[in-house]
Amino acid sequence: MRRFWTVAAAAVLAGCSGASPESLTQLQSGKSTLAEAVALLGSPDRDETLPDGSRMLTYVAQSSHTRPVNFIPMASHIWGGWNVKSGEAGLMFSPDGTLRFHSWSGNDYLQMRNMGQAISPYTAKAPQTNTPDGKVSE
């Protein structure tokens, strides 16, 4: 049950940006303003001011969804994982704050697999103990 809540929390926290191809359709080049874009998409991940006064806002969006098989013991080690969708929006504004253009790049559902437990290639050391005369023995 503890694993369920850990995975559920990670899935909820993964997608924090309001940027998506759908939300970008609400912006119009030559008409939308910087203030409208920030109100729609939230705070950008990067905000760069160029020497001519133009501004470039960048939004990084990522969401992940666990697969139902993750909750079946032993099956999660074979077929488990997450479906991850990520993308990045770039918005360029003129010095007067009007949107020049915007773009979206992203991938559709990259599948991440569970890889099992980490196994160390090193052999375990024997525990060390102190002898009555203060020396360390193995």
List keywords for this structure.
single chain; alpha+beta; 4-stranded antiparallel sheet; two-stranded antiparallel ribbon; 35% strand; Lipoprotein; signal
The helical percent reads 10-25%
Radius of gyration, in Å, reads: 25 Å
Number of strands: 6
| Cα end-to-end separation | 40 Å
Q: Main β-sheet, in a few words?
A: 4 strands, antiparallel
Give the count of helical stretches. 4
> What number of domains?
1
Query: What spatial order of strands do you see in the largest sheet?
Result: 1-2-3-4
Structural class: alpha+beta
**Average pLDDT over all residues:** 75
Q: Sum up the overall morphology in one term.
A: elongated
The H/E string reads HHHEEHEEEE
Strand content: 25-35%
Unreliable stretches (pLDDT < 50, length at least 5) are 1-15, 114-121
Structure notes:
This is Lipoprotein. Residues 1-19 form the signal peptide. With 138 residues, the chain is α+β, with helices and mostly antiparallel strands. It has one domain (2-114). It is 21% helix and 35% strand. 12% of the residues are buried.
How would you sum up this structure in a few lines?
By secondary structure, this protein is an alpha+beta fold.
Task: Record the SSE blueprint.
Elements: H1 2-14, H2 21-24, H3 34-41, E1 46-49, E2 55-66, H4 76-79, E3 81-93, E4 99-113, E5 129-130, E6 136-137
Antiparallel strand pairs: 1-2, 2-3, 3-4, 5-6
